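This section describes the prediction task in plain terms. A model, or a person checking by hand, is given the sequence of a single protein chain and must write out its three-dimensional structure as a string of tokens. No templates, partner chains or ligands are provided. The sample shown here is typical of the held-out split.
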Amino acid sequence: MTWSSGRVRVEAGELAGALTPDFSVKIFRGVPFAAPPVGALRWRPPQKAKSWSGVRPALKNGPCCTQAPRPRGSISDFGEEPHSEDCLYLNIWSAASEPDERRPVMVWIHGGGFCYGSGSIPLFDGENLARRGVVVVAINYRLGPLGFLAHPDLNAESPHGSSGNFGFLDQIAALEWVRDNIAGFGGDPGCITIFGQSVGSSSVCCLVASPLTRGLIHRAICQSGGSMAPEGAPGGGSMQTLEQAVDRGRAFAARHRANSVDAMRTIPAADLQLPPPGVSGAELARAQAQLRLSGWLIVDGHAIPESVHAIYAAGQQNRIPLISGANSHEGSAQPAAASLQALESDIRARFGALSEAFFEDCQIHSASDPLEAARIALGERGFNWQNWTQLRLHAQTIGAPAFGYYFSRTQPFPPGAVFRENTTGNLGAFHTAEIPFVFDNLARRDWPWKDEDRAYADAMASFWVNFARTGDPNGQGLPEWPRYEPETQMVMVFDAVAQAGALPNRTRMDFWDRHFEALRAGARLR
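The expected answer:
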């Protein structure tokens, strides 16, 4: 067994990975970090990976969790991946010359609404980050009902009396595997940064809050997502109460005509995860909505003991350095209202007494395109406000280093390309736009990038790697990124150039503060 040839021993056995053509980066794909969660292990906490004899090839990506396909031709479509309920695998990239180098480790948690995605999507390839001196790990976890189903039978099986966060527990199991094995890949188990985007960012937000991650994580980066909204609140950034999740689990079982979880464990995974075949239109939309509601993080009293907002507000989260931020056009790919009249009716139904404040503070009527302005503002509700709130609370309550950002760099989005169904054109710095810059992977999208884009990606990747190394993103040759302080409230603005500044659209964040505080007050009154 020799590290130079791409072989390494982990707890479960020996792995043989691949080397890049220049022999400088070793890549290990499809590494099991837990036992297959199938059969009797469906809807149970992840178990230790089983040992193997001989040398296990680590050359192919493991399957992602069973899921519906992404829209073909959209920018979220990177081709077919193998799908399976047996999905608990991770990939590793390391440029360490010797396995005892103790390089910083960056663990990526993918997004996809807890219904889609994997750690093997080409945009998340860790080679370019690894060349900068870190060991990169990208993980899978259980999704949808397979990952987040709560049910009275499952509560009864649990020593904690709760259920549902199985996909979240998978993430923790992957971090435990990294702690126990990453030293063999040249990584430092005492310097682990978790980073994620969208619901991957929501997961990171919760992992920082969870008592189960003490000692497992040492830095955190949240990109476009958090878990700061009151449980059960409609819209992004919300979580389920255990009671809500159990009610949805009962309804889910009833739709599958199953009178027990044991009966549901015999149903094929695809039947649980995918809409029924042949449905379309409104029926398909309802089925997809039910699947999304059956796959979401839960305040379960164990892995997530209480409201994440309350945990941060009380300073009970992990005391580690944090980067948190979002993009300028998070909502640009969401459907706009059909008319101004329809928008006003919808806003009044959503926000009641705060409706006029929404139109004023979010500057809707004064915008050149009120419908587009409302779409962007509503996107900030589910994303920007989540990150902004996490950043403020983290800095205020525990005093750990915190750094905020706002990504608004114009994208060379090809004319006519599709982001999602029925969405084309220039979408600004849309949801996911920062990812190829962070990974320095612009080449993974065949867009008309310019040299200045590539230089920008080099700078962003350097910020992220510096943070993983030291807990501070600053470094030689980079613009100064100020630490977030409650008095100054400065962030890094990634626009045409990267420079420190005040958070844009602050009045809109203030509006969302009032909105969510009203929801929390309402929750307390019920």
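For orientation: The chain has a mean pLDDT of 91.
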